[in-house]
């Protein structure tokens, strides 16, 4: 069975139900911890009653700096919402690791951002080097991926769309909440990845709810495609896309065709005027709740609760 690890300002903890046992390790970074699995197993097997998980303040289990890479439009439901038809080419983009924040830390909306969106994603944490040219199969996926983490690929849509700029729109501080747990699956657990269900709610309103079976490019193939040009190392993070249900959705085809005839400034002004009536974009005071787990609890990445606040 998988093990869940929690990171706090005081160190690393292995989670057992509602209790957490300190891991006796010198690990500072996520990569260090992944190299010390023996210490994790020792803590998990100890008779120590530990500390209540509720009494601990979780930090992101993915330490920075690290590489953060993400997949674009990788769920069929998201592709439909985005207006894509036919085959969708696998596409990757980078996020600044300075965007990574803790699972309870507030998401801060910059003052110039008017349309802030959410994207629940399964994060793959690398446990071994992935050199350029690597081919990853389903069978050897556990040799490269050591951990799973819940993440939210927060997006400033007005920056993303008007500038066609993914890097900036998704890289502001607090735009990648991660955690609470770093799940360390055993090799046999990888057979259950497609059963993982991603669920995200805003103020109790369920917005996203899909399993990994909705994925277009699955993890082993994604790593193979990424390795055509990108090296990854232990502790690096690959975000594997989000299901449908985000605030942003493509306009009807007729409206899209008319918009294509307009000058860009006019087109975007009209588009965002219509988006201003969309109540699903994030606002100051909202609370995002997100979970990723299999129905039987074999893999459970915990619950992420992140408030939204405006920059002061």
Question: What would you note in describing this structure?
Answer:
The chain is α+β, with helices and mostly antiparallel strands and 312 residues long. Helix content is 20%, strand content 29%. It is built from 9 helices and 19 strands. The protein has helices at residues 30-34, 37-45, 76-81, 141-144, 157-163, 166-169, 219-226, 253-260, 264-275; strands at residues 3-8, 11-16, 19-22, 51-52, 68-72, 91-95, 100-101, 107-109, 116-117, 120-126, 145-152, 155-156, 176-177, 182-184, 197-202, 205-211, 237-239, 287-293, 300-310. It has a 5-stranded antiparallel β-sheet with strand order 4-3-2-1-14, with helices on one face. A 5-stranded mixed β-sheet has the order 6-5-17-10-11. A 5-stranded mixed β-sheet has the order 8-19-18-15-16, with no helix packed on it. A hairpin with a 6-residue loop joins strand 18 and strand 19 (300-310). The longest helix has 12 residues, at 264-275. The model has no long low-confidence stretch (mean pLDDT 94).
A few lines on this structure:
The protein is an alpha+beta fold. It has helices at residues 30-34, 37-45, 76-81, 141-144, 157-163, 166-169, 219-226, 253-260, 264-275, and strands at 3-8, 11-16, 19-22, 51-52, 68-72, 91-95, 100-101, 107-109, 116-117, 120-126, 145-152, 155-156, 176-177, 182-184, 197-202, 205-211, 237-239, 287-293, 300-310. The chain starts with a strand and ends with a strand.
User: What composes the largest sheet?
Assistant: 5 strands, antiparallel
The SSE string, one letter per element, is: EEEHHEEHEEEEEHEEHHEEEEHEHHEE
The number of helical elements comes to: 9
Strand order of the largest sheet: 4-3-2-1-14
Q: In terms of per-residue confidence, which ranges show pLDDT below 50 for 5 or more consecutive residues?
A: none
* Relative helix content: 10-25%
How far apart are the termini? 44 Å
The geometry reads as: globular
The average pLDDT is 94
Radius of gyration: 19 Å
- Portion in beta strands: 25-35%
Structural class: alpha+beta
Instruction: Count the E strands.
Output: 19
